[in-house]
Amino acid sequence: MAGRLTARMVKTAKPGQHGDGDGLYLIVSPTGARKWIFRFTFAGKVRNMGLGAADVIGLAEARDKASEVRKLVASGKNPIEERREAERIAKGKPTFGAMADAFLEAKESEWRNDKHRAQWKMTLEVYAKPLRVLPVDEIDTEAVLAVLQPIWLEKPETASRLRGRIEAVLDAARAKGHIPRNEANPARWRGHLDKLLAKPTKLSRGHHAAMAYNKVRAFLAELRGREAMAALALEFCILTAARSGEVRGAQWSEFDLEKKIWTIPADRMKAGRPHRAPLSDRAAEIVKALAKAKTGDFVFVGVRSNKPLSVMAMDMLLRRMDVEVTVHGFRSAFRDWAGNETQFAREVAEAALAHVIGDKAEQAYRRSDALDKRRGLMDAWAHYCEPKAGGNVVKMARPQKQK
Q: Which of 12, 287, 323, 342 has the most Cβ atoms closer than 10 angstroms to its Cβ?
């Protein structure tokens, strides 16, 4: 459409704003400085986008720029964010969104479970959306809190996992040199966000799958009063932070009780690679006690000789105990405890869970598998979980006692 301004008007306009039509305005300050802005509505809000100084950009060029911006708005894009992204690319600093996408792609082979990958993708795209347009080196504590606080009380488990995932992406950015190594991670919990947000164990969780880690000790005290193979399997599962299938399928040939190591073969691991699990004294004690009544290949036998414990045995035990958590949820409790209450590196905790670390720097832990460091972590976890009194006797049960 024909503009309302002329080149002469641009040079002689008095202080104020002067419309040229379709969102283009000339702004003249009281000092006489002149600049172009484009006014548009995006996501229900009116926004102003600067197009440059009028003494540098003429009327015709300003109209061309406004036309390009108008096209972006029509296509559903925010032109201000698009320009920022272009500037960041020119600087060579990736945005959080670009880094998060690259992080997910790098870990693609680690996640055999599509649901797990979808959860990571959803939280980093939906809940962390305000961070995605920011350069990774410009994300500060305030920016992280802005995405966590709205859901911290309403969705505590999701918020806690989101925090950890933001931390992981920023750690990856640091490993790639996009963030100075001497700068603290703004999403770090211990010694940082724990001073600004309520502890996850203090939040009201409702009927969620994971048990708060500060309740595990009392739970184990009650669990040890159950004379069933499923109770021993569940306690062993908790102390080793292993998956239920790994525990149910455990065979005597996998254990070196002298060195207190359980080596799970690759074909039984989710990541498809062998995993050495260091055993705490209590975990080794359970296996040694069961060895005295060994009846076949499996450590935790079911009602039939030489058959593993049934798939539902531990879940049914939790139901009978009227505890609304899942067996897998104890892995989450362990991870929250390790991250919130210890000084062990995140990589060590992830290795204890048999998670494959994605970037090259972190894979150094996988080459040596950090066994000694993980042993210290698992001993600390067993000590934390140990009931205060009367919890050191392994209660034996005949395989058929599953009620």
A: 287
